[in-house]
Amino acid sequence: MSAKQSALLTDLYQLTMLQAYFDEGMAETAVFEFFVRALPPGRNFLVAAGLEQVLAYLQQFRVTEKELAWLRAHGGFREPFLAALGELRFTGDVHALPEGTIFFGNEPVLRITAPIAQAQVVESRLLSLLHFSTLIASKAVRSVLAAPGKLLIDFGMRRAHGAEAGLLAARAAYVAGFSGTATVAAGIEYGIPVFGTMAHSYIEAHADEISAFKGFARSCPQNVVLLIDTYDTERAAEKVVRIAPELAREGIRVRGVRLDSGDLAAHARAVRAILDRGGLGEATIFSSGNLDEWKVRELLASGAPIDGFGIGTALDTSSDAPFLDCAYKLQEYAGVPRRKHSEGKATWPGRKQVYRHFTEDGLFERDSVNLEGALQRGMPLLAPVMRAGRRLPPAESVAESLAIARARAALQLTKLPPALRSLDPAPAPYRVDIAPPLRALAQKLDRMPH
Amino acid sequence: MSAKQSALLTDLYQLTMLQAYFDEGMAETAVFEFFVRALPPGRNFLVAAGLEQVLAYLQQFRVTEKELAWLRAHGGFREPFLAALGELRFTGDVHALPEGTIFFGNEPVLRITAPIAQAQVVESRLLSLLHFSTLIASKAVRSVLAAPGKLLIDFGMRRAHGAEAGLLAARAAYVAGFSGTATVAAGIEYGIPVFGTMAHSYIEAHADEISAFKGFARSCPQNVVLLIDTYDTERAAEKVVRIAPELAREGIRVRGVRLDSGDLAAHARAVRAILDRGGLGEATIFSSGNLDEWKVRELLASGAPIDGFGIGTALDTSSDAPFLDCAYKLQEYAGVPRRKHSEGKATWPGRKQVYRHFTEDGLFERDSVNLEGALQRGMPLLAPVMRAGRRLPPAESVAESLAIARARAALQLTKLPPALRSLDPAPAPYRVDIAPPLRALAQKLDRMPH
Q1: Which residues in chain A are contacts of B23 at CB distance < 8 A?
Q2: Looking at chain A, which residue has its C-alpha nearest residue B323?
Q3: Which residues does chain B have within 8 Å of residue A289's beta carbon, measured at their own beta carbons?
């Protein structure tokens, strides 16, 4: 992640367009906005994330000599353009929703204002970064809502779609309120708390569970959370109780157990009783195994005595909604608003702002999308974050900005109307108005010839 | 991708287990196997991919000094173990299904035989690599079956789950039979053909479509595929016809048009007629816009005159099945077969092989999973690919091995029973037998105490 990102991690058409703009002498300022067209089924709101990665990408954008050589060799690109491409840096302005902001469909999440070549060439990667982190933060927050106050750990790296997805999912889940991740590299990269003890293979490699439990406890005495479902969950819990006094004499406390299969609610109740009877009332029960927010909600609703959840595949792949219908669209070129009319994909033109209105109780009431600078009440949500290619303060430290984003998400959750906080679809979606000046501009553009 | 991959892109529990093994003096040979438990709904078969990435990862596995320093500072790890971790390299054996092999549930796809620390610590990343590439190859092959002989291009990088997913999806789709990708970096990394021309923003940035079309054609005369749905598809097609003679006089041929929205079948028919009437009978029609294998099948079944398809989000996220129920499980330690009993997650123990049986016509008839070395007819599918940490030939060149994998997938598709070639679920799944010796071993292990 901190390594140089290739500027050619992009679609070829960005480069063919850039060459055409170069040949045509088109170098005016363009305004592009990133937005999500409509929320996926099953989402009442989204949580913005990934801005930090976008800004880092923009700052280090540069096509290398080696990449230029590849383009030279692979046809269609000519020398004066390639030289210009080698000089290209991002010198534009960026406005964005701060990470951790709750937002809705049709609302601009990020705006780029830059010479058209710069604004265009970053499209593919910018989409990839904002899309994925926002997707996962918006998935993770559902487990946070389903399990308030519980330990929630990202277990998903192994089934995330590749290395970057595993890392960014850990970060996005943390922004949304997860307690941490199992992924060591995410801890190193982002300063997120990292959790983990043992897998079934560890238990199986030993002749019996008791020697595995004791071996682990002595090797890792500060972190004794024992996996008890490899063979027979309740019998393993009895074994934990049996060895606890011996470990206690060595100064080792059994902090908890983990359940990973079967009827988790029933096992948790049986195991809780065994631990309590055995004097391990303070030992916690952590569960994992194909969990998602629905299963977490169900387990807690049934009163299962579970203290924490490891959520993996469903989180890191956002399995019920593995993508957002998002886009990065030209809104203005050379001072003139632009609009795509394509059927079912028309966009609202111009530089826009989201204005949020609150109830008297301080809850989100409705948003209004309007042209920037319009006479409009409400709290504007997009803020400048980069000017002329330079980041604006804050965000000197990655860890600090991550903590702020996490706090922002937590605060905004408290302001969400109750109906939107449910895992179930709200009876009515949150109200997002397209303000009259914006509608008027769109109509005007539609009447122009092309 | 070619950069150093962090060995700590793994779950923390791998490291706590490794320290426990170290403290307990457990260093015998372990055998782990990667397999998919059951095919996702809607898949009749899977296509193995990602082996190349796994082997590269194993070869360069090394915990850096910087990473050791992080572990030292972040608690729970002690010096003699950390020194050993710094020395750890992968020196084991690997057996695997070659990339492009068609396989089914419960079949080992890859087997690691190595000292337990090595075999354990690579689990998370190995899973991540094999899982994702196999997931995407298995999704992509469905479009290949739906559109035989058509141009199929991966358009999905922007909504793939991060950078690595975008790159690996392009590669996996190519293995499965796609023609290429829009992602430039995938072309650089893997030598895959790269395609692309223009986006709507290019059209919109111009005062009118005709100047955009001409501008692009003159800038990129070898690659004139014009996007015609920005405002009005049929009117744009008429404009293409109108400017074609002028471009032809300049030696520029309009190779095709792209449709990206609306009723693609209806537009394609109307546009085909316009192009044909206008003397552009050789210009092709390429389509894109939220496509997947179902829509491709429907378009072709309706007789829509479409020559190629760009498939993006649905491909790169495998949107209808965004993960495989896969696992990497301990099968043997210190010469003794092992088995996890966890409810609903029990595994078949021991070192296994897949034996494929063929009909008289050469089609796949059934597979049998048995212990390696068992007396068993059929063609064994797992082959040795790495011995004592060194790769076995072939695969000197990335491009060469990719071409071979692609040819293998294409060949195996011709041997698939017709019912499995459908996008619809086959009336009966392909037959995979668990051979009697394997069942007997599992029963024997179940009777042992733990």
Answers
A1: 215, 218-219
A2: A159
A3: 345
Average pLDDT over residues B65-94: 95
CB contact under 8 A, A162 and B158: no
Mutate to test the interface with B, among A158, A329, A447 (most CBs of B within 10 A): A158
What's the pLDDT tens digit per position in A260-317? 999 999 999 999 999 999 999 999 999 999 999 999 999 999 999 999 999 999 999 9
Q: Tell me the three-class secondary structure of chain A, residue by residue.
A: CCCCCCCCCCEHHHHHHHHHHHHHCCCCEEEEEEEECCCCCCCCCEECCCHHHHHHHHHCCCCCHHHHHHHHHCCCCCHHHHHHHHHCCCCCEEEECCCCCEECCCCEEEEEEEEHHHHHHCHHHHHHHHHHHHHHHHHHHHHHHHCCCCEEEECCHHHCCCHHHHHHHHHHHHHHCCCEECEHHHHHHHCCCECCCCCHHHHHHCCCHHHHHHHHHHHCCCCCEEECCCCCHHHHHHHHHHHHHHHHHCCCCCCEEEECCCCHHHHHHHHHHHHHHCCCCCCEEEECCCCCHHHHHHHHHCCCCCCEEEECHHHHCCCCCCCCCEEEEEEEECCEECCCCCCCCCCCCCCEEEEEEECCCCCEEEEEEEECCCCCCCEECCEEEEECCEECCCCCCHHHHHHHHHHHHHHHHHCCCHHHHCCCCCCCCCEEEECHHHHHHHHHHHCCCC
pLDDT of residue B108: 97
Chain A: residue whose CA lies nearest to B233: A342
> pLDDT tens across A205-262, in order?
999 999 999 999 999 999 999 999 999 999 999 999 999 999 999 999 999 999 999 9
Residue of A nearest to B186 (CA): A9
Q: What is the pLDDT of residues B100-135, one digit of tens each?
A: 999 999 999 999 999 999 999 999 999 999 999 999
pLDDT digits (tens, 9 = 90+) for B46-69: 999 999 999 999 999 999 999 999
Contact A205 B155 (CB under 8 A): no
Q: What's the whole-number mean pLDDT along residues B85-100? A: 97
Q: Which of A23, A216, A329 sits opposite B219 (nearest CB)?
A: A23
Q: Give the gap in angstroms from C-alpha B405 to the nearest C-alpha of chain A.
A: 20
Contact assessment for residue B166 and residue A128, using Cβ atoms and an 8 Å cutoff: yes
Cα(B72)–Cα(B82) distance, rounded to whole angstroms?
8
The chain A residue lying nearest B192, using CA atoms, is A74
**What phi and psi, each to the nearest 5 degrees, are found at residue B202?**
-65, -45
* pTM for the structure as a whole: 0.97
A204 and B339 within 8 Å at the Cβ level: the answer is yes
Longest CA span, chain A = 85
pLDDT reported for residue A66: 94
CA distance B359 to chain A (A): 35
Question: Is residue B416 classed exposed, middle or buried when 0-12, 13-18 and 19+ CB atoms within 10 A define those classes?
Answer: middle
Spell out the domains of chain B, with CATH numbers in brackets.
Answer: 12-136+322-446 (3.20.140.10), 148-316 (3.20.20.70)
Pairing verdict, β B284-287 and B308-311? parallel
- Closest residue in A to B199 (Cα) is A13
| A157 min Cα distance to partner chain B (Å) | 7
Say how far apart CA A49 and CA A54 lie, in whole Å: 10
The strand pair at A225-227 and A93-96 is best described as unpaired
pLDDT at B345: 67
- Which of A1, A5, A17, A317 is the best mutation test for B, with the most CBs of B within 10 A? A17
pLDDT score at B397: 53
Mean pLDDT calculated for residue range A350-361: 96
> Which of A16, A121, A240, A267 would best serve as a mutation to test chain B binding (most B beta carbons within 10 A)?
A16
